[in-house]
Amino acid sequence: MPAETSQTLDRGLRILDLLAAAPAGRTVAELAADLGVGRTVVYRLLATLEAHQLVRRHPGGRVDLGTGSLRLASRVVPLLRDAALPALRRLAEDVGATAHLTVADGGEALAVAVVEPSWTDFHVAYRVGSRHALDKGAAGHALLRGRSGDVGYVVSAGELQPGATGVAAAVVGVPEVQASVGVVALGDLDTAAVGPRVEQAALEVAAGLA
């Protein structure tokens, strides 16, 4: 680690990363093993993080993220939305379908930005704040594939709404963000044409966040 960085802060941030990846929480022993330090060090770090409500310790000994992390996350969402909206607007207009930015939130996919096309007679009304399981819908499937760096688009039909078709691609290259860009429309989409356009929009969002 470079001399100008803080080892203590680095370890505290690594604990938050480890907990964010473990919905069921982790034990002090597990955290100590992951960090390569003694339990005493982990206890001190957790005491500081707990004082800021960034973690919480349960009577059974497990630790998970606290409500303070939710406050921080809520401030990140507007940044994601602002970075994504120009690309989403272009995508919605080009494809003629409702475009959205979706992020992973625990075991769910959460829509944080939605843009509807201005020129179509009919389009899907997709609400910001909509949630669904990560293993459902094009947005969720894209999020799961994105964890392995897969930028290819995915297609779903009727998984979340009868008669609706979705196309989505992961936003990759931004390690701090698990997100996907997609479109949804009633009826069929020309996925061979729409898919690459969705991939392009996902790259544009990644560039805006870099």
Descriptive overview:
There is one protein chain. Helix content is 44%, strand content 23%. The protein is an alpha+beta fold. It has two domains: 7-65, Arc Repressor Mutant, subunit A; 70-209, Beta-Lactamase (2-Layer Sandwich), CATH 3.30.450. The protein has a six-stranded antiparallel beta sheet. A three-stranded antiparallel beta sheet has the order 1-3-2. A hairpin with a 7-residue loop joins β8 and β9. The two termini are 23 Å apart.
Question: Nearest-angstrom radius of gyration?
Answer: 20 Å
Tell me the quaternary state. Answer: single chain
* CATH A-level architecture of the largest domain: 2-Layer Sandwich
Q: Which fold name corresponds to the CATH topology of the largest domain?
A: Beta-Lactamase
State which percent range the strand residues make up.
15-25%
Describe the biggest sheet? 6 strands, antiparallel
Order of helices and strands: HEHHEEHEEEHEEEH
Helix content: 40-55%
Q: What is the first-to-last residue Cα distance?
A: 23 Å
CATH hierarchy class name of the largest domain: Alpha Beta
Task: Tell me the structural class.
Answer: alpha+beta
Q: How many domains, in number, for the residues?
A: 2
Question: Strand order, biggest sheet?
Answer: 6-5-4-9-8-7
Average per-residue pLDDT, rounded, comes to: 91
Q: Tell how many strands the DSSP assignment holds.
A: 9
- Choose one word for the global shape: elongated
Q: Tell me the CATH superfamily of the largest domain.
A: GAF domain
Q: Which ranges are low-confidence, i.e. pLDDT below 50, for 5 or more consecutive residues?
A: none
Report the total helices: 6
